[in-house]
Specification:
Layout (H helix, E strand, L loop, with lengths): L14 E5 L5 E5 L5 E4 L2 E4 L11 E3 L5 E5 L3 H6 L10 H10 L7 E5 L5 H10 L4 E6 L2 H13 L6 E5 L11 E6 L8 H7 E11 L2 H13 L2 E7 L25 E7 L12
Parallel strand pairs: 7-8, 7-10, 8-9, 10-11
Antiparallel strand pairs: 1-2, 1-6, 3-4, 5-6, 11-13, 12-13
Length: 271
């Protein structure tokens, strides 16, 4: 059961978000008879089941929690991790630029904790599929648990393997390389992509961007783009509206390209 298939009221088995003071967020899977416990008090699951979304609930100490349906960004930000995960600001742009949607086949190298995997699986849905490669067993195990928690594990084939050995899938719609040295695996990604398919990657430094660009040109990718996204929040107080004290600035350079037939001469103006 995926977390987004909700009825008008919270049901036994739903993954719900309880939002408390200071935007403190808690995610729980409702189960009759169990109890939600925090330092701000206790709420019985049975007192949540059957309540409408947006309802204010009080712990036994009188502290308020609002009952919400978690959004995709909420899920990603709260992903249990043992690696650095991509930020929602970057993931959202990746999904848009690479045209990830229902029914598509997406290949990912560098599963990590499964944050981006979750977004891919959510977008392709039950009619599509995600193939995710990871070389560290402990990362793969955590990613599987994270996807199972939100009910999207059926949309993903988790594979323990090294990108240097290539990928068994062919004619996929998109490939994303979330690896330390993606420039070493552009050829392997090319072999799995359909003609016209999207490639994407993220790297933190300019030096890495240069090497990725060289590899993309060598493997006949065109319409190459490089960008970074900066996100600034504002204090939601109408009497003294101003930016928040901290800003999500550089998290990485996003690089995208489109695959074309190797036998064709690539116009350098397109590349």
């Amino acid at each position: 059961m995926t977390w987004q298939n909700y009825k008008e009221t919270a049901q036994d088995g739903d993954l719900v978000q309880l939002l408390g003071r200071g935007h403190k967020s808690h995610f729980i899977r409702l189960k009759s008879g169990e109890v939600f416990q925090t330092h701000r008090g206790v709420i019985k699951h049975d007192d949540i089941i059957g309540e409408v979304w947006g309802k204010k609930l009080l712990s036994h100490q009188g502290n308020p929690f609002y009952l919400m349906q978690p959004g995709l960004a909420d899920i990603i930000k709260e992903t249990k991790r043992n690696t650095q995960i991509m930020y929602p600001k970057d993931i959202g742009y990746v999904l848009m630029v690479m045209g990830i949607g229902a029914g598509q086949k997406v290949l990912e190298a560098g599963t990590g904790s499964g944050a981006l995997t979750s977004a891919f699986a959510f977008m392709v849905g039950p009619t599509g599929h995600v193939y995710s490669y990871e070389r560290k067993p402990e990362n793969l195990a955590l990613a599987k648990a994270n996807l199972r928690k939100i009910g999207l594990d059926d949309c993903v084939s988790f594979k323990l393997g090294d990108a240097s050995q290539g990928f068994t899938e062919r004619q996929v719609d998109a490939v994303f390389l979330d690896l330390r040295n993606p420039y070493d695996y552009i050829a392997q990604a090319k072999a799995s992509l359909k003609s016209g398919g999207f490639i994407g990657t993220i790297v933190p430094t300019v030096n890495q961007v240069i090497r990725v660009l060289q590899s993309l040109r060598n493997e006949h990718f065109v319409f190459i783009e490089v960008c970074e996204l900066l996100l600034r929040f504002y204090k939601p107080e109408w009497e003294r509206l101003r930016p928040t004290d901290r800003m999500v600035a550089h998290t990485g350079f996003l690089i995208f390209g489109r695959s074309v037939f190797e036998s064709e001469e690539v116009d350098t103006e397109l590349a």
